[in-house]
Amino acid sequence: MKALTKLLAGAAILTSATAASSEELTVGYFLEWPMPFLAAKADGAYAEALGMDVNWVAFETGTAMSAAMASGDVQISVSQGVPPFVVAASSGQPLQVLDVAVSYSENDNCVVATTHEIDKDSADELASKKVAVPLGTAAHYGFLKQMEHFGIDLASLEIVDMAPTDGAAALAQGSVDFAC
Question: What's the CATH code, domain 106-179?
Fold first, then answer.
């Protein structure tokens, strides 16, 4: 907790021009990713350490965090994701990386509806299927690499931009064939 408090304190200093007028720091984060900082968030330790109110806003994608930072609604994001950061910074958004907190390589996979009975040996059957994937995210990058690995032509797929929770719901309802 001390490391993240120092990190947020540094971010508060970096964003002091924005935060000074409101005496509030708005932090974007992924609610679905349980991380140790959430305990300190819950007990108000960050606000106490920073000497200002900390407004925590949950997001479903790193691209949504980038948009909120671009508009000035959010001053810092925790766990934004590397691909959304790269996309935003490459397009000219003045973002800076303060720390890389976690790697989640085991969570970057696509899930195929069991009704299709598709596995790694029959992955070519994914061609012409409908997939839910949040564009511009680590999941999107992983999806592209997986399709490349299995030789699936992206033009053969119907790709729908959906946040992970929406993609999971669409998969459960049978609205998409697989989700990432």
Answer: 3.40.190.10
